[in-house]
Fold this sequence. Notes:
Radius of gyration of chain A: 13 Å
Distance between the termini of chain B: 37 Å
Largest interface: A-B, 21 and 20 residues
Oligomer: heterodimer
Order of helices and strands of chain A: EEEEEEEEEEE
Number of strands of chain A: 11
Largest sheet of chain A: 7 strands, mixed
Radius of gyration of chain B: 13 Å
Amino acid sequence: DAGVIQSPRHEVTEMGQEVTLRCKPISGHDYLFWYRQTMMRGLELLIYFNNNVPIDDSGMPEDRFSAKMPNASFSTLKIQPSEPRDSAVYFCASSFRGLGANVLTFGAGSRLTVL
Amino acid sequence: RKEVEQDPGPFNVPEGATVAFNCTYSNSASQSFFWYRQDCRKEPKLLMSVYSSGNEDGRFTAQLNRASQYISLLIRDSKLSDSATYLCVVNKSGGSYIPTFGRGTSLIVHP
């Protein structure tokens, strides 16, 4: 398996622009997580899905952030409009509950810079 | 009190040294515990699970102390390649599946 695939790896955009981050989880995994990592706050859970259904989005900072999982092999995290404080590394991770809780496999991350 | 707390370090140790990190958690009903490793500008990767009876994987030993609500990671005979950030992971609440990460402890192993 190719692992969790994220795109783009790097994104530089200007304030006010829409940003879409993409994630392809490992085939067969039934959980998908979106995290954001910054030096100040560490790894923060934004939202997670189980069987494509959003379970907990309490970590999403505000209405500018939205996430979807239209099918088992694809998820997006959208920021509209983007702001400089959104600059961070965004990680997608997936897991299969049957192998034990919390054993996450992370993607390589999408490094976002908002100017 | 934060849900999961770690000393950020850095811990700066010579090769061959033994080093230990602790991680405290606030929810006494937490069920599962893990250590992840994150190299600079890379994604976190699972290092090892932490079992109630303690467990060992080569030079690495993980232990859980439920009474005091902390987990520990011991690294013996440190290698240069052990330099990384070590993240403690605790599930968010008893029975829940939501993993909560600590901020991580930075380890630097020097020659």
